[in-house]
Amino acid sequence: MADFLFEPHAPVSIPIARGGLYAVRRVYCVGRNYAEHIKEMGNDVRDPPFFFAKPADAVVVGGAAIPYPPKTDDFQHEVELVVAIGKDGSDIDPEDALDHVYGYACGLDMTRRDLQAIAKKAGRPWEMAKGFDHSAPIGTIEPASAIGHPATGRITLSVNGAERQRGDLGDQIWNVAETIAFLSQFVDLKAGDIIMTGTPAGVGEVVPGDVIEGRIEGVGTVRTVID
Fold first, then answer.
1. Residue 117 φ/ψ, nearest 5 degrees
2. What's the rounded Cα separation, in Å, for the pair 7 and 199?
3. pLDDT in tens, 82-126
4. How far apart are CA 183 and CA 195, in angstroms?
5. Cα 150 from chain centroid?
6. d(Cα 104, Cα 203) in Å, to the nearest integer?
7. What is the pTM of this model?
8. Which residues are 168's β-sheet partners?
9. What is the DSSP letter of 203?
10. What's the CA gap between 2 and 149, in Å, rounded?
11. Which is it for the CA torsion 121, 164, 146, 140, positive or negative?
């Protein structure tokens, strides 16, 4: 057995609603997948999907609190459907794509919006706006074998009990099967990969002390508190 320079970090995992743990390999995120959110951000709804990534250890589970991140004055919430891949594949046909899904969860793509705006203006990557520590709170995963593949369903987010975001999974420009097929043209998808599928309109700022609760009808919830 190889002698590691230091003890390897423990695998990142997400609880499965009916028992067990889902080991996370990679976190892919879809940009601009709800028309109303695209409009509120001042972008063109006709664009094809594009992707950015978060590190696996950005995932936060169990409703744990997350710290207000450094280097930002505009920390924002985005509630999203999370797709958990359970079967490897590349160049996947859209008709076969859902066969690669293990399950679904509700998650938050937390964003340093001011840093994102600076990066956009300069034509630079978004990593420091999106891929920072504790930026991906995720609820428990519901297996598709139990809930099916939700194509519609209300998706909402509240802050301190007041609703901020509301949409429907059916409003996605690129549905789950299309997203998986498109992404698999660029990377080999593996069991353990998760895909965060974009957010509806209503994104906004949060501050220390705020309680964030996301909910997707038929899928589940996610909750966190900003420290």
1. -65, -40
2. 37
3. 999 999 999 999 999 999 999 999 999 999 999 999 999 999 999
4. 10
5. 16
6. 22
7. 0.95
8. 154
9. -
10. 42
11. positive
Residue 181 half-sphere exposure toward CB, CA atoms < 13 A: 13
186: left (phi over 0), alpha (psi -120 to 50) or beta: alpha
Under DSSP, is residue 110 helix (H, G, I), strand (E, B) or coil? coil
Radius of gyration, CA atoms only, the chain: 17
Provide φ and ψ at 169, rounded to 5°. Answer: -60, -30
Q: Indicate the DSSP class of residue 6.
A: S
Q: Which residues of the chain have pLDDT under 70?
A: 1, 37-46
> Structure tokens of 72?
């930002």
Residue written as token pair 């509120």: 40
Amino acid at 160: N
Look up residue 58 and give its amino acid.
Answer: A
**Which amino acid is it at 13?**
S
Nearest Cα to 220, choosing from 51, 14, 25? 14
217/169 Cα distance (integer angstroms): 9
Sign of CA dihedral 77, 80, 86, 89: negative
Helix or strand (DSSP H, E) at 72: none
